[in-house]
Amino acid sequence: MAADCNFHGSDELVSQGIEDFLFSRDLFPLGLHLIAVFLFGRRVFGSFCSSMPCVRPDPADKDAEPFVEIDPTGRYGRYDDLLGAGAVKRVYRGFDQEEGIEVAWNQVKLRIFREDQPMMDRLFAEVRLLRSLRHENIITLYNVWTDDEGNTLNFITEVCTSGNLREYRKRHRQVSIKALKKWSRQILMGLDYLHNHEPCIIHRDLNCSNVFINGNIGQVKIGDLGLAAIVGKSHAAHSILGTPEFMAPELYEEDYTELVDIYSFGMCVLEMVTREIPYSECDSVAKIYRKVTAGLRPAAMDKVKDPEVKAFIERCLAKPRARPSASELLRDPFFLFLDDDSYNAALHPPSLPQPRPRPLPADAAHISSRRIA
């Protein structure tokens, strides 16, 4: 079982700092359709030109799509395409020149933090730790730096091709229980990694809008770590943060452990199965609070017809002392006969035999290497 976790220090620094500005929900706010426009718009344009008389952009023109900014290492470039914006943060389409992949370039305005050095110190300590996280089911933070001239904190994260799980599930209504189990197990694997990390990390705002998916291989990743509590070795964190429909009862009491994430995970499974946000029958946060603290289940539970699925969700929503850890749930019979061969093969394709080197032609000495700009 994962070690219990405690929070030491002022949680206000987390709630005022990272929770609102660092990994906020605007990382993927526009959905797959708009991201696709940004990523593939020029291909569509080129395809159109192939059948219509029009002026083609010159492939040799290096300024056809110039970077408007490059990170200090020279590896990441930022385009002017805005993917999302919040009160203090903007998310742009970026490009990793070394790996040749699209990334998200996030810019956080630091003017609010400049007058509070302790909060700045805590913010950067948190960022350094989050940068160290490496797991296939956690959104990767690639690089972080500050721009003193622009007074911004910049960080690069990966982009999932199919957006968040909530919107993906809405687009694809016919999904088997087997597929839902695969998604669920991957979320648990990410939570297990966070909870067993040293120091322990409690997500505190896990829900289907901040779980992301690469739909072509069914790979799921936890993101939006903006409310995460990085805690020590004792027993409880102390602050009320999160999305009300997914918050465990003990979160409202401001005395909780990493097991609040398991409760939220159970609500995620419920939403995945029913395509309904828990407690959608409530028209106010106050009504949700009363139901949650009274131990009343959301109306969506009545829509779960599979007894195995319902029992698994109930196990996740149990009272803290009876609630299992992520490690324990991964060994639950719910996942016993799950075959993930296609998922594993997509992530780890078998190595192909290397071709034998061919002898160089006689005039090889006249062949020179050329760097492509």
UniProtKB/TrEMBL annotation:
It comes from the Eukaryota. Keywords: ATP-binding, Kinase, Nucleotide-binding, Serine/threonine-protein kinase, Transferase. Residues 348-373 are annotated as: Disordered. Residues 77-335 form the Protein kinase domain. InterPro entries: Kinase-like_dom_sf (IPR011009), Prot_kinase_dom (IPR000719), WNK_Ser-Thr_kinase (IPR050588). One of its GO terms (molecular function) is protein serine/threonine kinase activity. Its EC number is 2.7.11.1. Residues 350-360 have a biased composition (Pro residues). The keyword Transferase applies. It catalyses: L-threonyl-[protein] + ATP = O-phospho-L-threonyl-[protein] + ADP + H(+); L-seryl-[protein] + ATP = O-phospho-L-seryl-[protein] + ADP + H(+). This is non-specific serine/threonine protein kinase. It comes from Zingiber officinale.
